[in-house]
Amino acid sequence: MCALVLGISCSDEFLEVPPAGSLGDAQLGTADGIEALLIGTYAALNGVFGNRFEGPNHWITGSIMGGEANKGTDAGDYSTINPIQRYETDPTSGDLNNLWRGRYEGIARANRVLATIAANPDALIAADAARISGEARMLRGHFYFDLQKHFGSIPVFDETVPAEEIILIPNSGNAWAQIEADFQYAYDNLPAVTDAGRVNKWAAAAYMGKAKLFQGKFSEAITWFDDVIANGVTSNGLAYALLDDYSQIYNAENDNHAESVMDVESANNTGSVQNANAFDDLNYPYNTGPDGPGNCCGFFQPSISLANAFRTQANGLPLLDESYNDPANAVDNNFFWVVVDGNDESTFVEDSGPLDPRIDHSIGRIGIPYLDWIDFPGSAWIRSFPYAGPYSPKKYIYYKTQENTFTDGSSWTRGYATMNYTIIRYADVLLMAAEAEIEAGSLAKALDYVNQVRRRAALSEHWVKKSDGSGDNAANYNISEYTAADFASQDAARTAVRFERKLELSGEGHRFFDLVRWGIAAETLNTYLAYEGQFLVTKFGGASFTAGKSELYPIPQAQIDIQGSDVLSQNPGY
Amino acid sequence: MILKSDYHSLKSCAGKINKSSVKFFSLLMGLVCSFALAAPTTSLETVTTIEAFQNDVRGTITDADGIPLPGANVLIKGTSTGVAADFDGNYAIQASAGDVLVFSYTGYNSFEVTVADSTIINVVLEEGLALDEVIVTGYTTESKRETTAAVSIVSAEELAAIPSGNVEQQLAGRVAGVTVITNGQPGTQSQVRVRGYGGFGGNEPLYVVDGVPTQSVAFLSPDDIATTTVLKDAAAASIYGARAANGVIVYTTKQGSRGDRKTRISIDINSGVSDPNVAGSPKMLNPQDMADYTNLAYENNAAANGTPVQYTHPQYGSNAIPTFPDYLHADGQNGVNADQVDLAQIQANYEADPENVFLIRPNLAGTNWYREITRIAPQTRIGLGFDGGNENGRFYIGLSLQSISGILLANEQNRYTARFNSEFDLASWLSIGENLQVTYNSVVGQSGGNGGQGISNDESEVLSAYRMPTIIPVFDDFGSYASTRAAGFNNPRTPVRRLAQDRGDDKNFSVSAFGNLYALIKPFEGFVFKSSIGGSYFNFNSLDYNYRYLGDSEPQASYTFAENSGYGFSWTFTNTITYEKLFANKHKLKLFAGIEAIEGTNTPTTPSKGRIINGSGINPFSTDLDFVTLSAVQSPVVQSFINTGVNFSSLFGQVNYNYDERYYVSAVVRRDGSSVFGENNRYGTFPAFSGAWRIIGESFMDNQNFFQDLKVRVGWGQMGNSNNVAPANQFSLAASALDNTFYPIQGQSSGADEGFATSRIGNPDAKWETSTTFNIGFDATIIDNHLDIEFDWWQKDTEDLLFVVPLAGVTGNFASAPSRNVGKMENRGIDLRVVYKGNFSEDFTFEFAINNTFLKNEVIEFAPGIDFLDVGGQRGINPTRNQVGKPLSSFFGYDVIGYFESDADVASSPSQDGAGTGRFKYRDVDGDGAITPDDRTYIGDPVANYSGGATIDLKYKDIRMEMFWNWSTGLEIFNQSKWFRDFFGTFEGSAKGVAAFKSWTPELGNSAAAPIWESASNISTSGAANSWYVEDGSYARLQRLAFIYSFSDLIKNSNTLSKFEVGISTNNIWTISGYSGLDPVVGGDADVNFGVDVGNYPVTPSYLINVNIGL
Q1: Other beta carbons less than 10 A from residue A49's beta carbon
Q2: What is the ipTM of this complex?
Q3: Inter-chain touch A24–B732, beta carbons under 8 Å
Q4: Which residues in chain A touch residue B747, judged by CB atoms under 8 angstroms apart?
Q5: Which of A179, A143, A197, A206 is nearest to A427 (CA)?
């Protein structure tokens, strides 16, 4: 007010208006501030920009692109996925740009934590400084890993590089050295037991094994996996173990279970459904009314060939010769019944052949109880039957009894659930360890690991039962363990373990990256497209996977536009 | 001041009258003369009453309405002896019989009278011709004759003529150089641009109401406005310095008048209806056609894929000839006939669970959903004005009620305003006054960003009417809303229910106060000191109820409730000094200086200082509106925010000089400081210089008859803009956000822990954008005062444009990037106004006025290494690219050169993803034999090269006809609503348009209106922005056609009645346009992204009755 009448002497003060509702460096350079910045880094695990490609489960880039599922729904809905699922991805895709931005935002947040600790050496006691640094580096390693497996060549830097230099770093290399350094630091500095929502040293160890596996460093991987399998515990102190009931892995009431090595926490009543698996909100059956979960939007429909892969032989083992798609072996479904054969859906007869019991924990099929909802009614819950096929996703779906207790009903669809997505679970560790053993260790150990996984799946009391109360199995389940004879050769064992990953981890975002690192993506996915394209002609007709190109996603054009093509070079073929 | 009076003729309007009836007669004369204004050739002489002979001549100078003209000049002709009237218009001068007194006042025709045998000479000055109109710059006034700048004036009558929620909408087509884009939503804010688009955002003009700057004039009632002045170039606007670059629109509100007289009352009533123009809405396929074309699509799909045809729609049977079921949906069963349905069971189920059981029959006649969501919408505005005063003061009271229903159900605006303006003399040298308005405003059901501007860009309820299949009835057999619970129709939601239910109960209001208090000190002749403190305060509250509804395929599963509330407050303190002096009869000097402080003001991108609190929750125990509060809902979320607004501190001054009213020069400078900038660049200085030569004043013009007035003007100046910068731009900050920095770190399944992340990167070096304008123009009056021409050529180069340079993803870009001074923009144009007035006969007069705006806008530079900026987009269609060398918000995509006519054509053409017979064939722009993203190109822009308005007023005796057209040409619209309507595969099953009839066939070839009717969706069909969506946006609209009758006999015979007019007006009844959408006027909520029509809210015809009464 002093400036008003005559003076301008104090108008400088008048023009100094502090910002509102935000904090500056001073407030954040404290113990509480650093802890809050760390929580902000965790928050980047499930995405920052609200794009579904940012989801940690990579349902599109990992599962759909790996042939486990297709977009589902109809052609017009979220149509920017259409070219992607046909391996016609355009570098201008805004979705991939968001994936890139979301992960680098996570790295920026981790780096801010580390830089703030460095700039405020007295803010934390040594133990906290080590722990928080370890968590931040663990998360940074995870974000880099995600970027590495999607884009191949990425810019890599740590917290010491200022922003004006970061934008000049070319994507000429890979992040493996940084990833390993981060996981090693995390392993060395993190406690085993901490808050359930935090990463611990065993998560770092398991992720380190995975990183080694991705680089083909099999014997080093074995070392890490052996440590994890022998000593690993979850953040809340449970020794790593397989749950008896496969379906309980995906149940919110069972979060932070013994199989959860590293997961992304989800919660309701947080004020935003972004904290409640928002990346999965479309991935429910369609038009279910109150009889089914979510109601929307019919995305992420498991593929016909994935269902077929659950066919077993009479001996309870899968058709490792890939003959499961032969008409004689293919799983009967209502799409064949109605669209191919022209029958009335109401007369559909269930497949009576032998099936791996995990099929009905993984895929919503007509006539089979859909969790504790009704029996899956078939095309009534499918948005566009001819476009996307007969199946609905079934993992990471909430139960009827959990509506509004383990879901967040505050947004436009009911499909915001609070089960944690598990980035690495113990079965995954066992199967990765089996792979490493096959390549550089003991086939017998590999056999043991795979059979641990199959043994759990074979616990018949946890198979899906008919809804009529009879206690009868919902289908003809038949699963058995491999014998030493089945693992007689490295090739046979390798085939069996890879097949087991497909069955055990279907729909969890791993498949595409597995196929690429195994070097079999082109042949596998072109076979898939040829088979699936017979039925889902609008979706897949004429599509193909281009070897040497489609293994990597394109560097987002938007980023090349900002940083310049002299800094960021595009991946081959785009 | 001396006015040349020989350049226009005055003609007697009335003779002498006797003393007793002076008062009434002058009142009446004002009325008559104001009617005659439309016909200036019958120009008026003033009324004088000459009573007796004395040396000391005294009297009062008033306008035609009897309002005193303080400061009016009286001069003895041929001498330098003169006086000015006091606040009450009273003057006294020593004069001898035979002297000629010249009475003059800015904006009025001067008048001469010879002193005879009277001591009292009361003078009524008539409002002047265009060149004498008053320009209120906010701080000072001058006449159009004096100005050296580019300014435009809109009369109150012109403004009030257009019925609309907001006064700024009424500027459309009225001012050369101003473009207004608005939509039909009541209470919506318009995109108003003065001379193009200066920057990448925040291009809204500055509004100044009674001297107080503001960003919106939505609170004003048109009936209260006295003058509207648009300051267009730097010479005029740079007195507002750092906030002037986008032009300044100055409003003054009505004042009372001094003098001992009766308080006058005016009553203005506008009432009528809007017609939603159902007939003009896009045509949709009826149920039979939709079924036929669904099956055709299946056939085309099969042909494209080489597979047998499958007729798989759940409603139309499995044969080539579609059939219709008896029920689209019967409690879970879809597409069933009566014999498959157990009605009794369904009835029982319904009674058990009415929300979840539907029984929907097909409506084979077809539902017109646009008709169902619209209505004939009533609107009314009633204004009541009182003005009066006495020798020591004056007042004006304006009361206004406005109620406008939108054509969409549940959409309405209600606004009540009360204005009180007054001024009183405390001493002969001191007056105090105030202008105060209180406004209650409520807008329910408004959609679109930026106060409704952005609705065309939204997937609005208007769009939903084109997505809802015609076969679905509005209600099912139980009387519930019917919708896409019936299978096969994809995901449209019933817009009728959403409007009626989810919006019907919504409430909101804002109460605002706006005004100022001022003191005028006039210690000696020619010197005025004014001190004003103004302010703006508002608060608001809104309630939003949304109902659980399970009938949509993507249902609303929860009842949700939200409540928002907040306030804002800012003040403006201004002190100015004016000194005006005529030296030696020829040198006129006017000096003006001021100082101003503003705290907490809003800008186009920032709310004013205050706080906002909002909360939401779901599923209260009861949905009784008297029960639901934030305390009664589940999962309540409450958030609040602090706004700082922006502080300004400014010094400014102006020197005006003219010699003999022939040579004019003016210099303006303003220095502004703003809180949005860091201390290094906090202040900006903005100078302007201008000059004018009134050629008509030269002696060599004395002997010509062609020009009655001629003046050339030249101006150069700089103006600033800081709108496109956030208040915290200079700071690097961290913040928490529920949606992306919170995390349940304990592993809990409910609630999350607060985290922080970098929220803003600071740029302490940002400074003002600077626009340098050059303006050259002339004003001429020719053909015996019949024709006025105002012409301006101008160029505006904006440098140091504040642009938010996108952060690279690798650095983390969740944080807001700061505005940096990097871009350049150029605008060039011509403003041309031509007014032709005349009469066919004594009783039959006319006035034609035409305003023309020519504009060329071009982005010159974004930032080093950045040549374009892509913005927005819906459904994977991203049509807008701002690029160097093109206008803002240009359209960008593939250029469609036709459709592939055969597989052979596909094979012989450049390779193109998704290519196929009957699909779009794109131009290989770079000629590399493949259609890639590099082949996307400029395909149009929404910036009108030419726009304007024309008024045609005719008056015959007591009847007036007023016609007003406005138009725009040289622009394009990106009609994205076609994406939803004209492809079968976009949300297959939802409603489709009649483009299906002209979808590609071998016979139609390239004359087809849409690609082949099929399900596929890829870049060769519905998957990319391309030129097929781009339509010519040119239009001409008959915005108003009115007939008005004045009961002049009644007035003449009445002692109380001073005005009585009844009119009927029609608005927007005729639009000439080739555009296929509902309304070719398509806005957007940002300057970098407009002209995309996804679901525009159309401006539709309205019909009104107007009654204007003066007592």
Answers
A1: 18
A2: 0.95
A3: yes
A4: 195-197, 235-236, 255-256, 265, 420
A5: A206
